[in-house]
Design a protein that fits this description.
- This protein has 14 helices and 15 strands.
- The protein has about 400 residues and is an alpha/beta fold.
- A hairpin with a 2-residue loop joins β10 and β11.
- The protein starts with 17 loop residues before the first helix and ends in a 6-residue tail after the last helix.
Length: about 400
């Protein structure tokens, strides 16, 4: 029968108690790298009732517009336009700037595949430049080395929430007449000397996927510093429709629906508490990791407020005595699911295999660190017991010591 779960019984035929089953499930649940914040179902009910009463489910309904306005204020930008997901927002951000077909867009190989895919889907050519050994963001010197006469834009990523070298990239873009777009999927809420991260460059793209600090189940956003961009972005996300009788340009369906917006409106007030909880967790991790030989943590950046999206570290096996993969496997054995993130890197994937990584070093840093980087579980429900387990695995002596 569909939907019926068979009753588990002991060998003597007794029914397993419901409480015991729940306890067993809780004890065996693995601890993942992310756990999305969620409002209570009771808080969601009034918004759902409103959606059902209005029967307006999409096409920029009232909840959509409320969330868009709230995020514009929260992110400190005049133009903040919601999308159904971050990848669609990336596609539109590149299209917004009318880049010449077949032209080259410089980006990082140390990113999620969607960054490179958005370039390719627009009929553009991704060109991979190396990352900085210090912070793993796109290295300006390598960007400069990758520029050709066919380069039209730079798509930089604030990886793990670490902010790119904004001034250097802006100088390169300006001197070479290039568009500068930022992928800020990891950098929601970051500020640089009190300036919002979404206000730099020609456009910034956010992801509101369920793994992100702020999420709408799925979702995304484009922000820019120019109010005049709003109409063009609206056309891009809504089929190019100008009015009931005219489609004036080529667009896609990138609109966020009312259910997503409802989740976003209820989640936004929860972000500050979750951010604070993650900051405390970061301090607990740093307390036992910062002095270990061969362990490198993401750097503190002057004037930058951390996004607290990920806790990433690098493990040098020669100095630490154990490899990243060994630590990752040992943690998994005790129910701690860390992520080798990003591994593989974009140039290891079939669509981009064989693409060079332009670097000013003999061996690209991205090729080296892809086997060193590990992201630990990082959310407000990581318990002190879980931290102790993680600490134990890092402090356990290797056979090589």
């Amino acid at each position: 029968m569909v939907g019926v779960v068979p009753v588990r019984r002991r060998p003597d035929g007794d029914r397993v108690g419901e409480m015991e089953t729940k306890l067993e499930r809780k004890m065996s649940d693995p601890l993942y790298i992310a756990r999305p914040i969620l409002p209570t179902l009771r808080e969601l009910e009034p918004l759902l009732e409103g959606i059902w009463a209005r029967r307006m489910l999409t096409n920029c309904g009232p909840l959509h517009d409320q969330l868009e306005a709230a995020l514009s204020r929260h992110l400190g930008v005049p133009t903040a336009m919601l999308f159904n997901n971050g990848t669609t927002a990336l596609l539109a951000a590149l299209r917004l700037h009318d880049l010449p077909p077949g032209s080259e867009v410089i980006t990082t190989p140390l990113t999620f595949a969607a960054t490179a895919h958005a370039i390719s889907w627009n009929g553009l050519v991704p060109v991979f430049a190396d990352v900085s050994p210090d912070d793993l963001t796109l290295d300006p010197a390598c960007v400069q080395a990758a520029i050709t006469g066919n380069t039209s834009a730079i798509l930089a990523v604030h990886v793990y929430g670490t902010v790119c070298d904004l001034d250097a990239l802006q100088d390169i873009a300006r001197s070479n007449d290039l568009r500068l777009i930022y992928d800020a999927a990891h950098a929601f809420g970051c500020k640089v000397f009190d300036r919002a991260i979404g206000s730099f460059g020609d456009a910034t793209v956010f992801s509101f996927h369920a793994t992100k600090l702020f999420h709408t189940f799925e979702g995304g956003m484009i922000t820019t510093n120019k109010a005049s961009d709003r109409q063009m972005i609206e056309n891009l996300r809504n089929f190019g429709i100008e009015d009931e009788e005219e489609v004036g340009s080529i667009g896609i369906n990138g609109k966020m629906n009312e259910l997503q917006a409802a989740i976003g409106l209820l989640n936004l007030p929860l972000v500050e508490a979750e951010h604070t909880a993650r900051a405390r967790l970061r301090q607990k991790y740093e307390a036992f990791l910062s002095d270990l030989p061969g362990i490198t943590l993401q750097p503190d950046q002057a004037g930058v407020t951390r996004s607290e999206q990920y806790f990433a570290l690098r493990i040098d096996p020669d100095r630490f005595g154990r490899s990243r993969d060994e630590i990752c496997a040992a943690l998994r054995e005790v129910g701690i699911i860390a992520r080798k993130y990003f591994h593989p890197i974009c140039t290891d994937f079939k669509p981009y295999r064989g693409y060079p990584i332009h670097s000013v070093r003999d061996q690209p840093t991205a090729e080296k660190v892809k086997s060193h980087v590990l992201c630990l579980p990082f959310h407000g429900e990581v318990s002190d017991e879980a931290v102790r387990k993680i600490k134990g695995e890092f402090l356990a002596k290797s056979a090589r010591w």
